[in-house]
Give the backbone structure.
Amino acid sequence: MRGKVRGRSWKNDHPSFRGASNMKLNWLETGESGARDFELDGSIRRVTGAVWQPGEVKDDTALVLMGHGASGDRYQAPIPHLARRLVDEAEVAVLAVDGPVHGLRFVSPGGREAFAKEMQRAGFVDDMVADWLEAYRAVCDDTGLGSGRLGYFGLSMGTIFGLPLLASELEFAVAVLGLAGTSKAGKPLAGVLRNAAGQVTHPVLFLMQLEDELFPRDGYLDLFDAISGSDKRIHANPGLHPEVPAEEIAHSFDFLRAHLAGDVVRQIINPLAE
């Protein structure tokens, strides 16, 4: 499946639709790890992010949207690592957007504490999804991206905002999610996350930490089970919330690259049935 061209297929009744705007993408004189920073001019609220792209953008150039965790920003690991690999090894572009109180949109005291306060504000999820859609549209209009396959990578807060984004007007081909659930830290958003997960039908890789201090195992499994599609898999590893093994990040790259190339065939092999 291909992403809907340059974000022009928003539905007016979608909760994140903000109506017509005269947004302009302003490239900033900053950037890290081979990316260019940007901000949107004309958006209702400030939207900032970073773009990595191959030297030549073709009609079928794929794009991966990447969301970071509550303690980071658009350059939080492993985003730069994955972005550089996708650009260099697969000619895939990457768009990362700062969270609502993160990065160039920093709100004191920053990190999880600032995000905890943001979570108390009504409509904060819909507003962040709208930020994503506006950033996607503006970046695609400016760079020529948006006609190729579309993927998503986002863990922890990147999944909290990522699932509603995956349920939005954009048409995704693949996603890597995880480090999130519907209990403990995820309990206030359990209904939102389950509802969004129920609209996800494309292939999903879901990463789980077995001793996660923020999201217990039952909530992980509840959220994974809520994902509607059958082409999904969960990888569980021992360790606390941030202790994701490097091999899972490497596998995330392989998973994204293969599905964005469109040459993956889901096969179930059961030798016991022979």
Residues 1-21 have pLDDT under 50 and may be disordered. Residues 124-143 form the longest helix (20 residues). Residues 69 and 84 are 19 Å apart (CA to CA).
